[in-house]
Structure formats: C-alpha cells, structure tokens
C-alpha cells in the first residue's frame, strides 16, 4: 500500500469510534475525567438572598425618606436564621454570607457607618436600593443544568459538584491501554547503560501524556525477537483496548513489529504517512475492536504521533475535541521534501494578543532534548516548501495541559 497523507491517516483513525461505557466515581476522584451526565442544581443559586458585605441590613425606603440613624435590633452571622425586623427605624448588623432578613432590602457596609451606643449612622449619600445583595436564584434556578455532560472535569466542576451535593459523578470509562517499548539497546531507568545502550524514555513520556487524561497505562517491553514480539502482542490483544507501540516499525533487520502484528491478526489500515517526523507510523485494528498505534521509535516521532493522532482520537471519542489552534510563524522557514513537516516551535503571546511561533528546529527526530524548549508542533502545508513570516498555520500544543 502506498503512503497515506496526514489528512488520510487522521480520517482513518478518527473513523474508529469506540464507546467504553461509563462508571461512577466519587467527585473528589474525578478531576481530569470526562463527565457523562448533566449536573443539575438541587436548589436555587444562591439559595437565599445572600449578603455580600459586612455591615447593616435596612429598609431602603427609610433611607430614601431621610433616615440616617438606625437602632441595631440584632446581629446576624452567616448560617444563622434571619432576624425578624418589624420597625423601619431598626437595622440588623449582618455578615457576608448571611441570609437577608425578609423585611430588609439593602445592605450598607461598615466602611460607610459609624456605630455607637447601639445605633448605626450612615455616613454616605450614595446608598442604592438592593445594594450588596446577591439575590436568590440570580445565578441558576432549581433543576437548571449547571454543568453539561461531555466536558472535562476541572476544578470549577468539582466545586459545583460539591455545592449541589453531587457526591458521585457518572464519568466516561477510559480505554485500557498498554504501552510497549521495543529494542535490545534499551535499558531500565535505574540501570547504567553500556556505551552502546540508552535508557528507555519513549514509554515514560507516553504514559505521562496519558496520565493527563486519567489513563493509567500498563508498560511492557519486548526485545528484538520475532517470537517474543508476536507472543506479547497476541497476549495484549486479549487484555487491552488500545496497544501503543514504539519502535521496530521501520526497515531494519530487527524491526519485527509490522510482521508480528499481521501474524496476530491485526489488520493494517496504513503503514507510513507522508510526514516528518514519524513517517513509518503503522496503524491497524483487530476484529476484537482493539486499536494498534505502532509509532516509529525515534523519540520525537513517537512524541509527535502520540499527540497528533492518539490524543486526537481519544479526545474525539470522549467528545472533548477542541477547535483547531493556530499561531503565526514569526520567521521565514523552508522545508523542501514532499512530506508534511511538523515544525517544533516555541510559543509566545505578543502585546497585541497574537500567538507567535518561533521555530526551534533541533537535530531531527532523535533529538528529544529539543522538545524541552518547545511547546507545540506546527503543521506546515504539504503543497509548499517556503513558509513566510507572518503566515498563520495550525499548531498541536503538547505542553502540560494548562500551559497553552
Ligand atoms: N532504511 C531505512 N531506515 C530508516 C527509515 C527508512 O525509511 N528507511 N526510517 C527512519 C525513520 S524516519 C525512523 S522514525 C526510524 C523508525 O525506527 P523504528 O520504528 O524501527 O524504531 P527503532 O529502530 O526501534 O528505534 C529508532 C530509534 O529510537 C530509539 N528508541 C526506540 N524506542 C525507544 C524508547 N522506548 N526510548 C528511547 N528511545 C527509543 C532507538 O534507540 C533508536 O535510536 O527509522 C529510521 N530508519
Ligand atoms: O520519521 Mo523519522 O521520524 O523522520 O525520524
Ligand atoms: Mg528500526
């Protein structure tokens, strides 16, 4: 099969829709998960006329008619039953968060008062009716949807769940993912490599990226051995929903992955994408529904493919895909090969609020040190080889969620 374009690869991958169902979680454990139900208000928000300044509560009519001195009939802390006031010449000393007494309608803060001998004197001429009150139901009404389904559970959502007494949240189940690294040159992180070995690192960045979506991936490693490779893949097909491999998909004598995947009954949907980095990317599906993303081993290739394809697929399946993001290239750039180039860029917002992307090229797809000083891949159009300063192109940010 001929190489597919980036667009074709994306279409093939996104056509693989999977629904892993839902589960209940205590709301305190749900950060970063995707909400699978609407959250509704169990009361109005706020649930009562909430005082927003420490001071006194009065009837505005009395102030309007010229009264400035009010007898303090009582004091009401937040959480206390509202004091009953029957005389317009009286006021209640009242605290932020307290429920406004029924016969009052205006709050005057301490800064605008003199308190002496059981009386409060208003020292300002700018009191307005209903000031310093957050009225019942102003924000939401009983039974209103306060958080819609199909969104990421953020700290603000956690706050809302707590406020409306929603102890358990229905969230989307996540795929069971195994991350399989491959290669005899790779040693464990706590080992000292020989002069001709390196430590495993691709699998850790994959696992860390998935953790941001709440996926706790299992990690396995296979040596460059055709039999073991096929065994581990066959085993994984029985246990997981998604298999992410890194390495062993190119032309090398010991690149056994594509053959082993085919031998295990995984249908190849494409092998090789017209892109740099990540050209030898292999993608397939198994009749059991398992998806196999076999990424090229060069660290920047694995990294780019993970974010450009796997994360996109995950977001689409969880219905949390974001609109495309764009940035303005801030220096001229040239790339001649007939491949879609994913340029590593550093992002910054200028003083006009325009997102600018500065290329940080690095030394090819083995140079993972370069990823440290970059924030995103800029996807440069295939049809061109000159990219002018000031032109806007699509970006794929990969820094920790929240950085961009
Ligand atoms: N004759 C050809 N050779 C290569 C081609 C080609 O088209 N023809 N493509 C090149 C491209 S592009 C890439 S990308 C790589 C892809 O290689 P593999 O997927 O076969 O990966 P490996 O050979 O196993 O490893 C490549 C490189 O990456 C390092 N690696 C692998 N896994 C890890 C890991 N878990 N942590 C850290 N580093 C890892 C590995 O040590 C190698 O240095 O092929 C080119 N060759
Ligand atoms: O695709 Mo390879 O990723 O160019 O090194
Ligand atoms: Mg290889």
From TrEMBL:
Gene3D superfamilies annotated for this entry?
MoaB/Mog-like domain, MoeA, C-terminal, domain IV, Molybdopterin biosynthesis moea protein, domain 2, Molybdopterin biosynthesis moea protein, domain 3
Which InterPro entries does UniProt cross-reference here?
Answer: MoaB/Mog-like_dom_sf, MoaB/Mog_dom, MoCF_biosynth_CS, MoeA-like, MoeA_C_domain_IV, MoeA_C_domain_IV_sf, MoeA_linker/N, MoeA_linker/N_sf
Example GO biological process:
Mo-molybdopterin cofactor biosynthetic process
Keyword annotations: Magnesium, Metal-binding, Molybdenum, Molybdenum cofactor biosynthesis, Transferase
What residues does the MoaB/Mog domain cover? 178-317
What are the names of the required cofactors?
Mg(2+)
Query: What EC number(s) does its UniProt record assign?
Result: 2.10.1.1
Which SUPFAM superfamilies does the UniProt entry name for this protein?
Answer: MoeA C-terminal domain-like, MoeA N-terminal region -like, Molybdenum cofactor biosynthesis proteins
Q: Which residues form a coiled coil?
A: none
Known pathway = Cofactor biosynthesis; molybdopterin biosynthesis
This protein's GO cellular component annotations are:
cytosol
Recorded catalytic reaction(s): these are: adenylyl-molybdopterin + molybdate = Mo-molybdopterin + AMP + H(+)
Function statement: Catalyzes the insertion of molybdate into adenylated molybdopterin with the concomitant release of AMP.
> What protein family does this chain belong to?
Belongs to the MoeA family.
Q: Which NCBIfam families match?
A: molyb_syn (TIGR00177)
| Protein name as catalogued | Molybdopterin molybdenumtransferase
Q: Which organism is it from?
A: Panacibacter microcysteis
């Amino acid at each position: 099969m001929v190489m597919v374009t980036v667009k074709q690869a994306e279409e093939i991958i996104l056509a693989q829709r999977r629904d892993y169902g839902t589960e209940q979680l205590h709301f305190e454990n749900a950060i970063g998960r995707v909400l699978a139900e609407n959250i509704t208000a169990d009361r109005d928000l706020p649930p009562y006329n909430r005082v927003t300044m420490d001071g006194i509560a009065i009837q505005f009519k009395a102030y309007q008619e010229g009264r400035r001195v009010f007898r303090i009939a009582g004091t009401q802390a937040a959480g206390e039953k509202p004091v009953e006031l029957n005389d317009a010449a009286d006021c209640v000393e009242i605290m932020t968060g307290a429920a406004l007494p029924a016969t009052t309608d205006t709050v005057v803060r301490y800064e605008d008062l003199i308190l002496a001998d059981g009386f409060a004197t208003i020292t300002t001429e700018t009191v307005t009716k209903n000031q310093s009150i957050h009225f019942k139901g102003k924000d939401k009404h009983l039974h209103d949807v306060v958080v819609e389904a199909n969104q990421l559970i953020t700290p603000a959502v956690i706050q809302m769940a707590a406020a409306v007494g929603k102890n358990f949240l229905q969230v989307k189940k996540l795929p069971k993912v195994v991350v399989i690294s491959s290669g005899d040159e790779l040693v464990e992180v706590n080992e000292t490599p020989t002069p001709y070995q390196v430590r495993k690192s691709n699998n850790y960045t994959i696992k860390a990226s998935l953790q941001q979506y709440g996926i706790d991936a299992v990690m396995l490693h296979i040596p460059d051995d055709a039999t073991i490779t096929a065994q581990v893949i066959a085993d994984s097909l029985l246990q997981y929903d998604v298999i992410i491999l890194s390495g062993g998909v190119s032309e090398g004598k010991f690149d056994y992955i594509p053959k082993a995947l085919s031998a295990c009954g995984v249908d190849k949907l494409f092998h090789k994408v017209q892109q740099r980095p990540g050209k030898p990317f292999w993608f397939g599906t198994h009749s059991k529904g398992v998806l196999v993303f076999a990424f090229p081993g060069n660290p920047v290739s694995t990294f780019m493919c993970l974010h450009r394809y796997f994360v996109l697929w995950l977001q689409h399946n969880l219905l949390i895909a974001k609109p495309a993001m764009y940035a303005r290239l801030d220096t001229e750039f040239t790339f001649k090969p007939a491949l879609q180039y994913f340029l590593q860029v550093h992002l910054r917002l200028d003083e006009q609020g325009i997102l600018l992307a500065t290329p940080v090229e690095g030394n090819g797809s083995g140079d993972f040190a370069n990823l440290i000083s970059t924030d995103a891949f800029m996807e440069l159009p295939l049809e061109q080889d000159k990219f002018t300063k000031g032109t806007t192109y699509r970006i794929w940010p990969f820094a920790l969620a929240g950085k961009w």
